[in-house]
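Question:
Write out your own:
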Amino acid sequence: MLNWSTYKGWDAGVDRYEVQRKEADGSFFSLGYVGSNDTNYTDKITELNERPHYCYRVVGHRVIEDTAMAVVSVSNEDCIDLHSWLFVPNAFSPNNDGLNDKFVTPGWFIRDYKITIYNRWGEKLYESNSIYDNWDGSYEGKIVENEAYVYIIETMGIDLIKRNYKGTVTVVR
């Protein structure tokens, strides 16, 4: 979500604002336009998982009446740094009640992900390389017993930071 102040330098005001995103090569890409009274824009185009740093600017456009001339004013760039993040719950309940039925580890700006789940004897019960594949609490087609299971999660964020998460998750039914 981008927010800005209205442009106050022109007596006649602004006809519209154009929101632009800076590309990796330094050029700017037009994301879209909003009306003269709008001061915010939600970027629904950019996949915020390609690089850790994004810059935006706003261009005010004004057409001079009775002429073919247009005037523009370009704002300063505003940049954001994206930081990877992962939440790991400590319990879930695979009982098909629609609430916390899977071991879900939601995250933001995760590029690479690997999860492995072990029982107390070190036997591997589950493994996945996708943050979207969630453990349903089963092993060989059967729901596991109510107890704690060891997880090891390895991530690489778009900020190029590697993180390892190790702990236990309790199955509760």
